[in-house]
Structure formats: C-alpha cells, structure tokens
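Re: the request from the purification team.
They wanted to know what the chain is likely to look like in 3D before they choose a buffer screen. I agreed to run a prediction and write the result into the notebook, where they can find it.
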Amino acid sequence: MEKSLLSPLLALAAYPIHVVNGLKEYATTLRRYYPNARFRRADLLCLWTYLTRDPYTICERFLKSFPDDQVQKMYGESFFTTLDKVAGAVKLDSKDVVYDLGCGRGRSVFWFNAMFGCRAVGIEINPVFVTQARRIRKMLNIDGVEFVLANLMNADYSDATVIYLYGTAFSDTAIVKLVEHFATLRPGTRVVSVSYSLMSYTDVPMFELEQKVSGQFLWGETDIYIQRKL
C-alpha cells in the first residue's frame, strides 16, 4: 500500500485511543489539579482562547516553511500526570527554574509554576502562542512565568535548573544540534528528554543518566530520560 494512503489509515485506526487517553487525562486534571485556583484560572483561560482556533493547525501553518533540522513540526502537549511524574523524579521545588522547550500554548508552563511555585519559562518559536500566553499571564497577574519568543536551538538557558524537552518528532539532525547547544549548560542542570536519551547523540561525555521513568502521552506510553549535565 502506498505511504500516502497508509498514513491516514493508521491515524484513523489510532483515533479512538487518542480520544480515550485524552478524556481520561482531562478527568484526572479536573480532579487532581483544578483545585489549585492559580492553575485552574490560567488553564481555563488558555483552553477558552483556543476554543475555535486549533493549535495543531496553527503550528502546522506557521512551521511548514522551516527546515526540518530546526523545528518540530508536529504539535503535541504533555499530560499533566506525566509532568507530575517528571517533577517528582527531579524533586522539583520553588527554588528551581524550569524551561519547557517548545511550550506551545503554555499550559505546562502555568502548571509548573502553580503546582511547585518555581519560576517557569516557555521557549516557543510561534508568535501566536507566545502572544496569547503573555496575554493570559498579564490578565491574571501571574508572577514567576515567562514566555520567550525564540528558536530553542539557540535560546539562553544559563539560569535553568531543569529543562523539559518533549521533542519526539525531532529529526536526528535537530537533536544533535540541540545537544551541541546544551554544551553551554551549567554543570548539574537536569535535562528531561522524552523517548530518547541525549547521550546517544554525542560522542563527548556531556551528561550522566540519573534515572529513567515511563510517561503517558496522547498517543501512548514511552520512556522519559532524566540526565544531569556534567
């Protein structure tokens, strides 16, 4: 069967799984995280902002002209339950500075800040997402949250203590470039990567693997690697 026909069929076959996983996650979000008023207000406003504007389409249209070795063209958001597992693994607290690379709408940035009182920074190349996230931050007068319009390949991470990278659709070339940029990170910085270890993309000893956990996403479960910068 031709690839052009196979891809839509595979996507259609997986659609019920996506729906079930998404509904289960949102029910858990309502029960476990929405009692936090700071997060609830930000998240509801974020969801309302995109009620008639599909972030997947916004992402696809904006990034279609970018080279594949610079961006991830497939939009995705991490489940809060998975972020909770990551936060527990790195022992996240209010002294941390968390960077979410390719933060999209910024829901995870608001979540990190509200749940742990840490400073949370979202790096995003799409000005639509950054503009709307900044508007929500301003409307709710939220401290400790920042959205930076930048290409994550050359953004400044000098004050980061934890970096979260949900880049499962990055090309190998893009990952190598990003790892090279991570050479400037401070020793001790933890880098969390989804689906692959960054140590597989460099011949230079740059990280040590602290631990590996599993995480659930819309499309299924995968390994998450927590690495410490040497």
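For the purification team: The chain is about 40% helix and 20% strand.
Please add any questions underneath this entry.
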